[in-house]
Amino acid sequence: MIKVENISTSFYGKYVHKNISLDIHDGEIFGLLGGSGSGKTTLLRQMIMLDEIQEGSIEILGHKLTKLKPIHRNYIKRNWGILFQFGALFSSLNVIENIGIMLKENTKLPQDIINDIAYTKLKMVGLDADVGKLYPEELSGGMKKRVAIARSLALDPKILFLDEPTSGLDPYSAKAFDELILELRDMLGLTVVIITHELDTIENVLDRFTIISEANLVFTGTYDEALKENNGTINKFLNQNRKG
């Protein structure tokens, strides 16, 4: 689904990526891990075409991003959904309007059909129809994340990009959100790319992950494989993110 080849990225003479390469497979939940400033967010932003690819290439769904014409860029963007760290809901719109905004901007569907789809997506993420009339300020943190996920699913994407999806949630809500991601992946056949530092998510949700440290990939594999590595950087990263 996603192929990263020889990506190098620098800012003000400092590298955040040095010739890194990785593959993300169809239907897997893949994590981008690393400390603050490690370049994981920059790599995700390059994947979704918000940041420029300086060196190397990224291929998504068989298309190299650096070779896309503007009309094709818009087409391929419709194949993914994005959940930013704090949800990024529009405060002036209610829940159903927030979910339906993508359909309103990208289709010619009548408003009643858009609303029907929005309510379907709301139910899909485990929220009642009554929530549809509420505004973001009336929602809990966990509900905001679920509404943001519902919005990201509006166009039936093949890939979900999630930036710290459980950040700021209490342990119960974070666990419930992790379970939702697994359910959606299995139900919709999604490929999911997650930036996270939560060990529970790393251990229980991710199929594989990569760790970026000092501009290099120091590990790519499963959680069990990471535990078997005799590598101080990997051990330190996993241990420092362990709760309790």
In words, what does this structure look like?
The protein has helices spanning 40-47, 70-77, 95-106, 111-124, 141-152, 171-188, 199-204, 223-228, 232-240; strands at residues 2-11, 14-24, 29-34, 55-60, 63-64, 80-83, 159-163, 191-195, 208-213, 216-221. It has 244 residues and is an alpha/beta fold. It has a 6-stranded mixed beta sheet with strand order 6-7-8-3-9-10, with helices on both faces. A 4-stranded antiparallel beta sheet has the order 2-1-4-5, with helices on one face. Strand 4 and strand 5 (63-64) form a beta hairpin. Helix 3 (95-106) crosses helix 4 and helix 3 runs parallel beside helix 5 (141-152). The longest helix has 18 residues, at 171-188. It is globular and about 55 Å long.
Summarize the SSE layout with pairings.
Blueprint lengths: L1 E10 L2 E11 L4 E6 L5 H8 L7 E6 L2 E2 L5 H8 L2 E4 L11 H12 L4 H14 L16 H12 L6 E5 L7 H18 L2 E5 L3 H6 L3 E6 L2 E6 L1 H6 L3 H9 L4
Parallel strand pairs: 3-8, 3-9, 6-7, 7-8
Antiparallel strand pairs: 1-2, 1-4, 4-5, 9-10
